[in-house]
Amino acid sequence: MRFSLLLSILAPLASADVGTAGSWSVPYTPTRCNGNSQDQFPSSNLFVSVSEGLWDNGAACGRQYLVRCISSLPRACKSGTIQVKVVDFSNNPVGKKSAAATMHLSTTAWAEIVDTSKGANKVNIEFAQV
C-alpha cells in the first residue's frame, strides 16, 4: 500500500521538466489571473507565478504543478515535493521577485523546498503539471 502511494506521488515527476525557481514576496496582488481576489490563493499558500514559457497566454492560471528542488549554490535544497497553483505571470511587476526564473514561488512554497538560512536566491527545480 505504501509503495503504491509513493509511486502515485512520484510518477508524475518521471516525465518532469527542469527549470529554475526564485522567491516571490508580498504584495501578491493584483495578479494577472484574478486581480485582487484573495480566493485565488490556496489555503496552503503554496502558489507560484510562471514565466513566458509556461504562461500560455493566461491559460496557465489555476494549473497545478508538483515541484521539487534538485540543486542550488549554496546547497539549500530540502527533500520533498510540493504541489503549487499558478496565480500570476512572472512579468507582472507586483511583489518582490528574485532574478528571472521559470517559476517564482510564494514565500511559503519557497521555504518548503529551500533552506532559507543558506541564502540561495535561485534554485534548479524539477516540475510536472498534475
UniProtKB/TrEMBL annotation:
The keyword Signal applies. Keywords: Signal. Residues 1-16 form the signal peptide. Gene3D superfamilies: RlpA-like domain. Residues 30-130 form the Expansin-like EG45 domain. Pfam families: DPBB_1. This is Expansin-like EG45 domain-containing protein. It comes from Glomerella acutata. The lineage of its organism: Eukaryota, Fungi, Dikarya, Ascomycota, Pezizomycotina.
